[in-house]
User: Which sequence fits this backbone?
């Protein structure tokens, strides 16, 4: 059974509500206030969704601000579709207001448009389409509104999916379902996720140029769109000329400003979420390259910076001695998302996505030895194990693929593996399912994030079909 006509009739309302949700700055902020464990903005976004769901006639539940859900149907075991309302910090480089929800050329621009506020609204209107037909379901359906998918501040291992932890403490495990924070048509394997902090003393220059600070990136799981170097030099103009010459020869984008004996260098890259493949222009890597290759420091100091660059530059782990791959999920990837240096010590916060068959303990042992060899320290901040389901035999994947193909007519694309990490790792029989359609640009976590309005409608059509089919499986 399809619900296309019902979904299509909600198009304007779906776009309106997506824009309203984007207007809410639901970035994690520390909070001790009851009912706002992840900050006021996230609680506002949760309240908005639950209010809209209640107005549609659904039963709604708010679990102390950690998460909430809308439910339709009766029964003891439910189907659950999962979304999240927390977003990463907008960062820099936008040409649209991050919370403006500008609509231009069929796109809604704003942080969270694709990840994950637009899909959350598509889910809610999919369930409304089912309800408004008056048709009965074989089992109840819940739309889960999460608030901690992005991992809070990423400071330690318990920071992953605290919203789901609370849900599972207070509610019964869903029978099956899907999460809308990945790609279509469906994902049958996710690489393991590892967030690391590498700390090391840095070489000190006693020459004519000294490093004052290094500050790059805003999110551990996103390639840096900008990294700022601050240098102190006896001849700032000469240093600026040398940096510009190297950048021109190596196709780097720099913005250089001088203030007396200080030089502030903004190295410009391109933000890209690490779950969607290897980024090509990480400003953090370019900054390390500049420190090692431009001859600004004494030879031994430059050599040390070259070592740092070579360790992280190969984003398949070769420089760290952990390169590997398998036939299920492909190659290991690394992204140094955040660099911080005060001129004396360097911190690199790095995202590692490792293959399904990887030996985790051996990989960590290699990294620990590598860090110790540089008088450094390696810390595991977060770790989620890989996910794997048989793409042809798993009953939820079969049902989702049938729904996708019936609505889109796409018989070409098969279930895929992905480096991304989703709620599917937290609950059994939850399959990553959309929202990114084949051929669309992966714009999660980047400046000028957007979602096509026509894609919102299409994904809502797909989700309505999938929810109905799963509820009657």
Assistant:
């Amino acid at each position: 059974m399809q619900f296309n006509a019902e979904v299509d009739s909600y198009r304007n309302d779906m776009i309106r509500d997506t824009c309203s949700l984007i207007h809410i700055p639901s970035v994690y902020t520390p909070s001790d206030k009851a009912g706002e464990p992840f900050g006021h903005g996230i609680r506002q976004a949760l309240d908005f969704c639950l209010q809209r769901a209640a107005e549609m006639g659904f039963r709604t539940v708010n679990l102390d601000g950690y998460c909430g859900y809308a439910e339709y149907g009766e029964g003891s075991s439910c189907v659950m579709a999962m979304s999240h309302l927390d977003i990463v910090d907008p960062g820099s480089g936008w040409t649209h207001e991050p919370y403006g929800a500008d609509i231009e050329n069929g796109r809604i621009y704003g942080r969270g448009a694709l990840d994950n506020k637009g899909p959350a609204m598509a889910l809610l209107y999919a369930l409304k389409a089912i309800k408004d037909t008056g048709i009965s379901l074989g089992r109840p359906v819940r739309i889960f509104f999460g608030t901690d998918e992005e991992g809070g501040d990423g400071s330690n291992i318990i920071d992953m999916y605290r919203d789901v932890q609370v849900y599972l403490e207070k509610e019964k495990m869903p029978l099956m379902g899907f999460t809308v924070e990945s790609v279509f048509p469906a994902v049958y394997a996710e690489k393991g996720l590892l967030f690391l902090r590498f700390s090391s003393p840095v070489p000190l220059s006693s020459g004519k140029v000294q490093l004052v600070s290094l500050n790059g990136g805003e999110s551990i799981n996103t390639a840096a769109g900008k990294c700022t170097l601050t240098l102190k030099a006896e001849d700032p103009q000469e240093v600026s000329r040398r940096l510009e010459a190297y950048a021109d020869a190596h196709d780097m984008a720099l913005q250089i400003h001088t203030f007396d004996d200080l030089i502030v260098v903004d190295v410009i890259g391109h933000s890209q979420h690490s779950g969607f493949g290897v980024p090509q222009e990480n400003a953090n890597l370019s900054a390390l390259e500049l420190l090692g290759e431009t001859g600004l420091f004494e030879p031994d100091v430059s050599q040390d910076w070259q070592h740092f660059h070579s360790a992280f530059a190969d984003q398949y782990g070769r420089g760290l001695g952990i390169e590997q791959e398998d036939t299920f999920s492909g190659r290991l990837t690394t992204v140094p998302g955040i660099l911080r240096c005060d001129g004396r010590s360097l911190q690199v916060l790095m995202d590692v996505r490792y293959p399904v068959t990887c030996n985790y303990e051996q990989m960590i042992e290699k990294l620990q030895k590598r860090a110790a060899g540089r008088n450094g320290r390696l810390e595991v901040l977060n770790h989620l194990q890989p996910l794997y389901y048989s793409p042809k035999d798993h009953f939820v994947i079969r049902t989702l693929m049938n729904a996708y193909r019936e609505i889109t007519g796409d018989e070409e694309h098969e279930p895929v593996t992905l480096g991304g990490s989703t709620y599917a790792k937290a609950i059994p029989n939850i399959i990553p399912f959309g929202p990114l359609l084949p051929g669309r640009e992966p714009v999660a976590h980047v400046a000028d994030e957007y979602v096509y309005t026509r894609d919102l409608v299409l994904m809502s059509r797909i989700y309505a079909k999938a929810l109905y089919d799963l509820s009657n499986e």
User: Anything to note?
Assistant: The chain is about 30% helix and 25% strand. The two ends are 13 Å apart (CA to CA). Residues 154-158 have pLDDT under 50 and may be disordered. Residues 193-384 form a domain with the Alpha-Beta Plaits fold (CATH 3.30.70.360).
